[in-house]
Amino acid sequence: MRANLRETLFLSGILLILSHKTHGQTCNGKCGDVLEDCSCRAACVTLLNCCANYSQTCFQVTPHSSSMLGGRALRIHGLVLPPGGSLTCRFKGEIVRDGLIDTQGRAYCVAPLLYETGWIPIDVSTNRIDFDRSGEYLSVHPSKADRAFQVTLVNATQWQYYGTANTAGELTMMWNSSLITADRVNIELWGYREVNRSMAAGTSSLQAELSFLYSLGKNMPNAGAFSFIPEPKENGSDWELGNIRITASLTSEGERDVEALWSGGHVLAWHLEQSFRDNSAAWAHNKCLQWDALEKKLPNFLNELIDCPCTLAQARADTGRFHTDYSCDIDRGSVCTYHPGSIHCVRAIQASPVHGSGQQCCYDIAGNLVLTGDSIGGSTPDRAHDWGSPPYRDPPRVPGYSHWLYDVMSFYYCCLWSDHCHVYFSHRPSSGCRNYQPPRAGVVLGDPHFITFDGLRYTFNGKGEYYLVSSPNRELSVQARTEEVKLKNGSLVKATQLSAVAMKEKASDVIEVRRAEGHLQVLRNQKVLPFTEQRWMDLHGVFVFVPSPQNATVIFPSGAGVEVRIREGSMAVTVLLPTEFSNHTQGLLGLMNSDPSDDLTTEHEEVISSTEATLEEIFTFGASWNISKESSLFTYDSKHLLDTYHFPPSHNPAFVPAFSLPESPDDPLLSDILTLCFGEGAEFCKYDTLTTRSLTMGSATLRTYQSHQNLMEGLKPVVSCGWLPTPKYGRKNGTCYLAGETLSFTCNEGYILYGSTERICLDDGSWTGEQPYCITDEKVGFVLGAIGFLSSMVTMAIMIKLHNRKQERERKEKPGQVVNQQQAC
Ligand SMILES: *[C@@H]1O[C@H](CO)[C@@H](O)[C@H](O)[C@H]1NC(C)=O
Ligand SMILES: *[C@@H]1O[C@H](CO)[C@@H](O)[C@H](O)[C@H]1NC(C)=O
Ligand SMILES: *[C@@H]1O[C@H](CO)[C@@H](O)[C@H](O)[C@H]1NC(C)=O
Ligand SMILES: *[C@@H]1O[C@H](CO)[C@@H](O)[C@H](O)[C@H]1NC(C)=O
Ligand SMILES: *[C@@H]1O[C@H](CO)[C@@H](O)[C@H](O)[C@H]1NC(C)=O
Ligand SMILES: *[C@@H]1O[C@H](CO)[C@@H](O)[C@H](O)[C@H]1NC(C)=O
Ligand SMILES: *[C@@H]1O[C@H](CO)[C@@H](O)[C@H](O)[C@H]1NC(C)=O
Ligand SMILES: *[C@@H]1O[C@H](CO)[C@@H](O)[C@H](O)[C@H]1NC(C)=O
Ligand SMILES: *[C@@H]1O[C@H](CO)[C@@H](O)[C@H](O)[C@H]1NC(C)=O
Ligand SMILES: *[C@@H]1O[C@H](CO)[C@@H](O)[C@H](O)[C@H]1NC(C)=O
Ligand SMILES: [Ca+2]
């Protein structure tokens, strides 16, 4: 806040004297800060108040991202050095490495090997002493790094199964030889493991370690391809997971943090010991049993996980908590190698708080959750979240690798190299969806129309900056800025539209998404983020996903998600909040409590009746939610923004909108409006067409409204009665466990069914009937013969009762949700 205030004072000063001269203070060690009389923030460039050597001191790098494995040379802008000059790079203030200078004097730092993702600070020195320049680069999950820089393992199946029955021969890898500026290269194997390191005071903790193991080839031609016949290695299973690395041959074997290309992480089947090659199934089974024993000792992480959405529609709509699992993505043709029978999978975005575990949810073509109880393609939870989790670095939170170690290796042991998948599934059962509650959504669209979390619709045309959602209790704030609508011919209208949203949760980075020339611009802590190399960013206390210049999703640890879209230049914002926010929201999107009547509660806690509110009263309500200057999360990086939003009151009292639109019968637009705007949302469409005098805008509003309706449709709660097993020696018809569904059961020939042949899932979340059992004629006969008819029937009845009671108890612990609507499977 101090810096903000100082900036304000300073900015007022600078604008008064219109001084554009540079200032004496330097940005050494201060990049991103605002100083007494000048600024070292990126915004200083447009505000013309940069400190003297800002552009030399605070540098950008190209490329701006690298796999967390490192090896990529990052060019430092604004720095040219004499050949033979000195260049030292320091990452995160602790990893010091020599930089590179090319023949033209351009300076580079090579991204180091890290076990974390996110923006990594770089300081640079040209005299080995003063690190007086700084910048940052984005370290990304290895599987999200630029594929062009990867060593490709040709025929992945052959690599994965090498040494198992019928898989042998030569292995081949390929790379783009022009990315290594050398005629000859070294090809190395690196292995990953997590080792127990003792710490101070007798404690110990696991540490991630990616280490050089041995070279597959030294001084080989940089031909872009390399083939070899792998040898089994003694004690190969000390390192079962790893990567290939290719470097220029001049670098010494295993030298760290040099320019290099890496392959993807993979299971090192081809490097395992002779006993694996002799009988891989037996070897794998043994490993699977060892893993089984280990899992039984490790803490239970399953009860910490969030339940999966019941339907594909819910999973795709709940973007604040679930995100596409790219290994099974309907938008990329549903190639689901590990999940046969599924067409789309999502992962819970946040790792679970204590264990850093992950949830995965896969859906079949009918949109139903696929469960491991029914199918090998079922959704499986992960002890370690594939994407890692803050603060990363320490197992099991290392992105990618921890997951491979805890969840993927064992899948190879139990499911792929041997036939004991039931062991794997016993520790990684699919989640049901009985405890899943869809989030609530509120939206702002068009010339701004609001639909609150409880579904109240209204239009508020204030000009200024307002709280869309404020939740003091959960420390979430989402602020919105509106600006006057400008017609094509340049004249302004007495109506406004959304132009930016800024948000923050707890101590997270501040994220702003704003309109810039028809697309979206995303800022993190007052600086524009580039999305040219990466669509996803792990930031501090927040994730940002920008799949296109028209769409951005901001995701907070609480599960709150903010979707920003731009269509025909018109911005819309959807805020999704999990039900934990109930009773804890205020602002323009209302008090979320399933009661629309109190949504027009002003900042002064005055409730305006939503049924009788006049447009003027709604305007007063909206104005009351103007933000306080101290709490503003916006970036004011132009004179226009300073003059329009920073200096004047947050709610501009001089701007009075037209409260009603003249819908005159001789308006030439009228007949087109009547054809365009019909059905639900027609009123928004009409309003916006008339205010903007543009059918395109009206149509954009209508489409955005329809998208919101589709979202609400997808988010409708559904009732699940929970999974029912297939009776042993029998069959179950159906794999959908939602209200209204019927499951039928039959027994194999020679068996008799006890219990219900049909069970129906009721709206209250319970199944009708009794769980069926299949029992042989002989067994019945044998039991009868041995103990006598009566007592055996009693025994059996008791057994069935006990079993049912146990199931009943489990179900009671996981009650079904409130019935709202049924979803056909
Ligand atoms: C910035 O200016 C200060 C003082 O003029 C100087 O000491 C420092 O070396 C400069 N830094 C760079 C990167 O040019
Ligand atoms: C991949 O390797 C497997 C096993 O060696 C082999 O059967 C298959 O033909 C190979 N596929 C290709 C495309 O080379
Ligand atoms: C190899 O990399 C160079 C330099 O980046 C690039 O121009 C070329 O297109 C790449 N070739 C292939 C086959 O990807
Ligand atoms: C690490 O060491 C500690 C104490 O030495 C031990 O209790 C713990 O089980 C070890 N963890 C692993 C994964 O080996
Ligand atoms: C393999 O492991 C055994 C027992 O741990 C050890 O004695 C031997 O030196 C190891 N061999 C190699 C090549 O690491
Ligand atoms: C712009 O167009 C609107 C309606 O189409 C009209 O009312 C207004 O006068 C025009 N303004 C200018 C400056 O031409
Ligand atoms: C962007 O948003 C639009 C409008 O909601 C949607 O139709 C489109 O699929 C989104 N695109 C991406 C890449 O998410
Ligand atoms: C919200 O508050 C109301 C009244 O105080 C209370 O009845 C209701 O149970 C609360 N809902 C939740 C989800 O906390
Ligand atoms: C703006 O917000 C303040 C509280 O932050 C409130 O006192 C003031 O009345 C609001 N302005 C208007 C015009 O409602
Ligand atoms: C399973 O149920 C479906 C519809 O409920 C029915 O059409 C089908 O015949 C049943 N299959 C068997 C094997 O009973
Ligand atoms: Ca309400």
From TrEMBL:
Biological process terms in GO annotation: nervous system development
PROSITE patterns: AMOP, SMB_1, SMB_2, SUSHI, VWFD
InterPro entries to which the protein is assigned, alphabetical: AMOP_dom, C8-3_MUC4, Epithelial_Barrier/Signaling, Ig-like_fold, Ig_E-set, Somatomedin_B-like_dom_sf, Somatomedin_B_dom, Sushi/SCR/CCP_sf
Keywords for this protein: Disulfide bond, Membrane, Signal, Sushi, Transmembrane, Transmembrane helix
Pfam families: AMOP, C8-3_MUC4, Sushi, VWD
Disulfide bond entries: 747-774
Basic and acidic residues bias spans: 806-815
Region named Disordered: 806-825
Residue ranges of every copy of the VWFD domain listed in the record: 440-633
One GO cellular component, as annotated: membrane
AMOP domain residues: 280-428
Signal peptide: 1-24
SMB domain location: 23-62
Membrane-spanning intervals of the chain: 780-802
Cell location: Membrane
CDD domains assigned: CCP
Sushi domain boundaries: 719-776
The name this protein goes by in its record: Sushi domain-containing protein 2
Gene from which this protein is expressed: susd2
